[in-house]
Amino acid sequence: MGASDYKFEHFNVTFPAEYVAQVQIDRPKKLNAFTPAMFTSLGAIFNKLSHDENVRAIILTGNGDRAFTAGLDVQAASDSGFMTLGKGEDVARRGVKIQRHIQEIQDTVTAVEKCEKPVIAVMHGYAYGLAIDMTTCCDVRICAKDTTFSVREVEIGIAADVGTLSRLPYSGVSMSFIKDVALTARDWSAEEALRVGFVSAVYDSKKEALDRALHLAKLIATKSPVAVQGTKQVINYSRDHQIVDGLEYIKVWNASMVQTKDTEDALLAGIKKKKPVFAKL
């Protein structure tokens, strides 16, 4: 696959280095806010990247200087989103339609987490609402110092339902902080995000953050794709299970995966002090 296979409205998908893809949300005049159709595109992009043998690491960012994403385009959602579903119908029947709609949206965002390849989120400017939903699905989160975060949903009269409230408790930040920001919809800064552990690094500018993300992605792309994808899979599995379950999972996983030629090549490269070259996966 190449760039021509990733033509989606309001998204730019590029390949800035070998085995590295960059997904850029591209609606800067609207602060990269999401319309209903953009959710479908997001899911499709990450499902394709997941199986693209020419991709080993992914960067997720937003176009423009003002926002990673300001979240849901509330006007678009009011015109064609869940608020319009089943109007005038029996409450149970309308409820079923809304549940199905929420499930569809959840699935598109979950595609970021389910993607076999590591995903590095690079945030700047406004990172509101959906920004938290998406980036809690990512494997690494970094940002520029101008980033302003918010779990915005209570501000528009709903509880966040696309993943924030389910994934933030597994993000390494305290439950007190989660309830603080989720119940108030207050803004929090890049400095606070770093202090509580929501991001792993803060950079002076969007450019510096993107440069760092590209460095990380290129480094990941030099490793065995069998090892990298297996590591992501096992970490996510272990996060959601007991320690004994995680140990059993990696035991079964590596019973086959350590037999790969990648292991032999990596070991020999270390001995011979040569850079290994791994086959596509």
Describe the protein in words.
With 281 residues, the protein is α/β, with parallel strands linked by helices. It has two domains: 3-221, 2-enoyl-CoA Hydratase, Chain A, domain 1 (Alpha-Beta Complex), CATH 3.90.226; 225-272, Lyase 2-enoyl-coa Hydratase, Chain  A, domain 2, CATH 1.10.12.10. The chain is built from eleven helices and ten strands. The strands form two sheets. The protein has a six-stranded mixed β-sheet with strand order 1-2-3-5-7-10, sandwiched between helices. Helix 1 runs parallel beside helix 3. The longest helix has 24 residues, at 91-114. The relative contact order is 0.11. The model has no long low-confidence stretch (mean pLDDT 94).
Keywords:
single chain; 2 domains; 11 helices; Lyase 2-enoyl-coa Hydratase, Chain  A, domain 2; six-stranded mixed beta sheet; 10 strands; four-stranded mixed beta sheet; 281 residues; 2-enoyl-CoA Hydratase, Chain A, domain 1; alpha/beta
How large is the radius of gyration?
20 Å
Under CATH, the topology of the largest domain can be stated as 2-enoyl-CoA Hydratase, Chain A, domain 1
H/E element sequence: EEHEEHHEEHEEHHEHEHHHH
Oligomer: single chain
What is the spatial order of strands in the main beta sheet? 1-2-3-5-7-10
Helix content: 40-55%
The overall pLDDT, averaged over residues, is 94
Largest sheet: 6 strands, mixed
Domains, number: 2
What is the strand content? 15-25%
CATH class of the largest domain: Alpha Beta
Which structural category do the helix and sheet elements fall into? alpha/beta
- For the termini, the CA-CA separation is 13 Å
CATH superfamily of the largest domain: 2-enoyl-CoA Hydratase, Chain A, domain 1
Q: How many DSSP H or I helices? A: 11
- Count of DSSP strands: 10
What would you call the shape?
Answer: globular
What CATH architecture of the largest domain do you see? Answer: Alpha-Beta Complex
Low-confidence stretches: none
